[in-house]
Structure formats: C-alpha cells, structure tokens
Amino acid sequence: MSDFMMDAVQAEVAYRTEQLQRAGRSAWVDRADRLGRRLRARWATEVKVPEQERRAAERVTADQAR
Q: Per the structure, how many domains does the chain have?
C-alpha cells in the first residue's frame, strides 16, 4: 500500500509542477503579446502630419462678392 501512495504522490507532484510551468509560460507569453500589440499600434498610428500654416483673414466686401 505504501508503494501505491508514493506513486500517487509523485504523480500529483508531477502534475502540479507541469501546471505551474504552464501557468508561468502563459504569463510570459501574455506579456510578450501585450508588448507586441503595443508596438504594432504605435507603428500603425505614427502618421506624420505637415505643420499647418496660418492664413491671413481676408474681408470680402460687397463689391468683391459680385
């Protein structure tokens, strides 16, 4: 009976170790994906807009409007 319990405990330890490693790996992958999304969003939104120039306001008189 002791060998059976030892096998069960070892199987449980192996299972939990695998689950912890998988969780750690998925957390790392999630962080890397988040960083990738952030970088892609920055590249996609980097639009260079030329500087606007101010124009002087012109008055249109009744004579010019015709």
A: 1
